[in-house]
Design goal:
311 residues; Tetrahydropterin Synthase, Chain A; three-stranded antiparallel sheet; Regulator of protease activity HflC, stomatin/prohibitin superfamily; Band_7/SPFH_dom_sf
Amino acid sequence: MGIIVLIVVIVVVLIFIVSSIRVVSTGYLFVVERFGEYRKTLEPGWHFIIPFVDYVRRRVSMKIAYIDIEPQSVITLDNVKISIDNVCSYVVKNSRDAVYNIENFKAGIVYTATIQMRNAVGSMTLDEILSKRHEINKEILKNVEEVTSKFGIEILSVEIKNIIPPEDIRISMETQMKAEREKRAKILQAEGERQSAITKAEGEKQAVILQAEADKQSNIRRAEGLKESQLLEAEGKAKAIEAIAEAESKAILKVNKAILESGTNETVIALKQVDALKEMAKNPANKLILPNETLSSLGSIAAIGEMLNKK
């Protein structure tokens, strides 16, 4: 009997020891009560409690969690019935408040987010709801945080997933969006054509400017060449005139020398007569009648010319 009693005692002690050990995993907290009253919160790790005295009221996760809120029917300011569903992310900051300040904090989050979403969306038109989704999310988050902070929950985000309008409204919106896309496409095409025309006109303008510049340079080079040719021609004429003048000067010198050597002016007079006869003979209409004395004088003049040429 003694051995049986000892075994029973050992078993009871073991059961007591095992029952007193609580292992809390990382990311969780245990809320412990003693005789129905809050006793303490167990952090991750090994803990001992008094069996049948201390009781683990709830195991609370401290991880970030998400709640997918079912679609809710909402009537907008312009009397359009739409369906909206959203997602809410949260984390427990105070496990005691999450257990004792509300019966079910997840249900409280869903209910609060739904009410605040309806309040925010109900004061806006459908177009505003579709274009201001980010502002709606911020407003819902702010209002939900004011409520959930009382039971130890921090709301990290509230995001609208889908906004589903009635079928006829959806078809009308798709038609409008299609028309807007076609309008933008036409505007872009017209803008492209305009830019193309501007570019083409600019190219033609530059081509005309370049052609005019080329013509100008060509005319300048042609004028410079003509000027150079005229200068060369004038220079040639000047040299020719200079040569003629020099030859005439030499002829006059010869005549003067002949006059000085002969000591008479008859030779000069004879030469003048010869020049006059040459000028008269150049005109076919002139008829010359020369007397015998003149012919004899011409012989003398010819002799003088022979004399000058020899000298």
